[in-house]
């Protein structure tokens, strides 16, 4: 594999890393978080929202099963552009489905297809990052990669949610969210056009020739077998599942808790308030955390940094327990809580991504194995997310967020014991 082909030397990596990982983050954040706020506005129950929006995340877990096809047919650039254009069309269809009587089943089905396209896009995008950058460049840009991935979270669950709240006052809930889904559609059409011209592409001589269906199945079996026979793979898999286990509970319920009436234990915030807090204070805190983490790891090394990154990622969930207990009326303590949580999220998430790239992915099927790792990681978020609504309805928000803190304990244990099968200082290609 050639890391610096002539096609990539003409374009600075940051010009495509930034937009590529922004485009990667948008579908996941929208399916996982923004759709829940939209459905809450439209009268759907917490348990129904949490279950279905978590279930359709399964595409991000199953994506390794079709990742070999992407390595065999076409190029990574082709799949990036194609899936971005398809996601644009799907968001336009979601917008059209919202006024219909059975809007929930139609829109959730379309979100499921968005999830499939988003998962496919992830494989091609990560493959581009891994194949066109050296290990040193991967570490150098990992903070920026994480920052722009989660900048999508800030813009999607922050700025766009804020404008949805503003539009609700003049256009009504349904038409407001139709317009926001239309914005998503236009954004992905623009991203597809941009990446068509700027994204690096494999040289024709490096592309794999077409194979028969039998060869594809053989290739997939080889990919799966070689993944699960890697050194210390059980410990590595447990790590990537448990690192985000508590987040799986918190991420589904936090925005619903913010919006729930105070009589139900929530904070009674408006849609605009939620979008404003996430899109202003949260955005700056997250980007700062992500970028600083990249330099922190680069200076200390991943192995020495990982337990600190785990602490930064998991400990800030305590702010939700405090908010649920005190139920502050002012936006100031809520904003401070979001700043703390988002800074820790940005700082800690970078370590998990770099671990998967450098300690799980290396080998013959680097792109496919990284897809396996990210798929398993999302399983650790999806399963607790599916049941988070039922638990919060059962015990209430106060007890629920105490449970989230208890759920962080396995992350600390496995991070302390996590294996490092590959030396950090590898020869640069």
From TrEMBL:
Compartments it resides in: Membrane
Main localization of the protein described in the UniProt heading: membrane
Protein's membrane topology: Multi-pass membrane protein
Keyword tags: Membrane, Transmembrane, Transmembrane helix, Transport
Any single GO CC term annotated in Swiss-Prot or TrEMBL for this entry: membrane
A GO MF term: transmembrane transporter activity
InterPro entries, sorted: AmpG_permease/AT-1, MFS, MFS_dom, MFS_trans_sf
Protein name as annotated: PAT family beta-lactamase induction signal transducer AmpG
Species this protein is from: Chryseobacterium defluvii
Lineage: Bacteria, Pseudomonadati, Bacteroidota, Flavobacteriia, Flavobacteriales
């Amino acid at each position: 594999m050639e890391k610096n082909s002539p096609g990539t030397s003409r374009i600075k990596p940051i010009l495509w890393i930034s937009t590529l990982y922004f485009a990667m983050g948008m579908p996941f954040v929208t399916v996982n978080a923004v759709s829940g706020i939209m459905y809450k506005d439209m009268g759907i129950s917490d348990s129904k929202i949490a279950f279905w929006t978590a279930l359709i995340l399964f595409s991000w877990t199953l994506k390794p099963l079709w990742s070999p096809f992407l390595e065999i047919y076409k190029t990574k650039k082709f799949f990036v552009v194609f899936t971005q254009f398809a996601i644009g069309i799907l968001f336009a269809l979601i917008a059209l489905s919202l006024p219909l009587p059975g809007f929930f089943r139609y829109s959730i089905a379309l979100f499921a297809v968005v999830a499939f396209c988003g998962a496919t896009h992830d494989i091609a995008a990560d493959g581009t990052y891994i194949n066109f950058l050296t290990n040193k460049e991967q570490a150098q840009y990992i903070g920026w990669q994480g920052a722009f991935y989660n900048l999508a979270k800030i813009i999607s669950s922050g700025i766009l949610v804020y404008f949805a709240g503003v539009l609700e006052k003049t256009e009504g809930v349904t038409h407001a969210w139709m317009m926001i889904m239309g914005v998503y559609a236009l954004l992905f059409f623009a991203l597809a056009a941009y990446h068509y011209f700027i994204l690096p592409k494999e040289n024709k001589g490096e592309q794999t020739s077409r194979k028969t269906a039998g060869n594809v199945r053989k290739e997939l079996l080889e990919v799966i077998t070689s993944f699960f026979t890697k050194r210390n793979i059980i410990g590595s898999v447990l790590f990537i599942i448990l690192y985000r286990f508590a987040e799986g509970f918190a991420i589904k319920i936090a925005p619903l808790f913010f919006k729930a009436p105070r009589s139900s234990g929530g904070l009674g915030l408006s849609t605009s308030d939620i979008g404003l807090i996430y899109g202003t204070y949260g955005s700056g805190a997250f980007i700062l955390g992500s970028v600083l983490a990249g330099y922190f790891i680069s200076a200390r090394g991943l192995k020495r940094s990982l337990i600190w990154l785990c602490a930064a990622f998991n400990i800030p969930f305590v702010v939700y327990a405090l908010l649920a207990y005190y139920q502050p009326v002012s936006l100031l303590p809520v904003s401070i809580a979001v700043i703390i949580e988002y800074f820790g999220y940005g700082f800690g998430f970078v370590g998990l991504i770099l671990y998967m790239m450098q300690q799980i992915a290396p080998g013959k099927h680097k792109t496919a194995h990284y897809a396996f790792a990210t798929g398993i990681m999302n399983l650790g978020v999806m399963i607790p997310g599916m049941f988070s609504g039922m638990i919060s309805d059962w015990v209430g928000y106060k007890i629920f967020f105490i449970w989230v803190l208890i759920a962080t304990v396995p992350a600390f244990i496995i991070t302390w014991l996590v294996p490092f099968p590959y030396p950090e200082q590898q020869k640069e290609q």
